[in-house]
Amino acid sequence: MLNIIETALELGMLYALIPMALFLSFRVLDIADLTTDGSFVLGAAVSVTLAGAGHPILAIPAAILAGGCAGFITAFLQTKLSVPSILAGIITNTGLYTINLMAMGWKSNASLLKKDTIFSLARDAGLGGGYKLILGTVVTVLVGVLLVLFLKTRLGLSIRATGDNPDMVRASSINPTFTISVGLALANAMTALSGAMVGQAQNAADINGGTGIVVVGLACLIIGETVVGRGAIPREVLAVIVGSILYRLLYAVVLYTKVVPVGCLKLVTAIVVALAIAAPSLKPELALRARRRSARAEQEVR
């Protein structure tokens, strides 16, 4: 059981960058970016391929750059070609399937068997048995701190303002095209970084490894916001990390106890995400129905 918990913590930290990226695109920019699935696989494909060629450390910045380019393409489609944000993400995600195959040498998967990775280097450096958890935690916390600091800069505040009120941003002589491009590029760079870390941690990359990852990321984001709450940027970043860990722990418990069939887990995740997103709209309706029932009960008593 301890091994299961440790694995859940490792995956929670490695995957926490995805809800962090969705926080930037979905919460800050108010854009539903569906490039996430493809960007995750892109990061894994680039990372595993370069690590297999003997460059495990160089593979990380290369994956980040590749993810940033994917986000820029989505932003270009949206801002310059007037493609709706959801369709822009779908188009980029579709194109990334071929790009990811190219990155893996036109194979559906790539392996790092008996090859050095950043995790094997960390183990050899003397980090001990929990080297994956330590390295994943360091990277995730570092990215979280950098994101908090960035969103407090002038450019970061402009990105936040773009998500709140694009018309006001235009009136303030700020180019929303630029802020959206930077925001989506950063979000997809973080997603690709997560894919790069996961790929080297698991010593493999698969063309279908990102399927449904956007739903999982949203689930982590919502779980974290429910537990930690929403508020200032540092609190939001902490929430996504907590949410990712809790989701992976829940996932591990379900697999261990077999309460829910493994094949139904993604359906349950989708339902939870849908209900959580719809909660603000459902609360007034549920409150109105509760008042009506209360009023009827009082009339019956009279």
Total helices: the number is 13
CA radius of gyration is 21 Å
Distance between the termini: 58 Å
Mean pLDDT level:
88
Q: Sheet with the most strands?
A: 2 strands, antiparallel
Roughly what fraction of the amino acids lie in strands? under 5%
- List the strand order in the largest sheet: 1-2
Percent helix, as a range, is over 70%
- The rough form would be described as globular
Would you kindly provide a written description of the structure presented here, covering whatever features stand out?
With 302 residues, this protein is mainly α. Helices cover 78% and strands 2% of the residues. It contains 13 helices and two strands, in the order H-H-H-H-H-E-H-H-H-H-H-E-H-H-H. It has helices spanning 2-15, 17-28, 36-52, 56-79, 85-103, 118-124, 131-150, 154-164, 166-171, 176-202, 213-228, 233-257, 265-301, and strands at 109-111, 204-206. It has a two-stranded antiparallel sheet. Helix 2 (17-28) packs antiparallel against helix 10 (176-202) and helix 3 (36-52) runs antiparallel to helix 4 (56-79). The longest helix is centred in the last third of the chain and has 37 residues, at 265-301. It is globular, with a radius of gyration of 21 Å. The N and C termini lie far apart (58 Å). The mean pLDDT is 88.
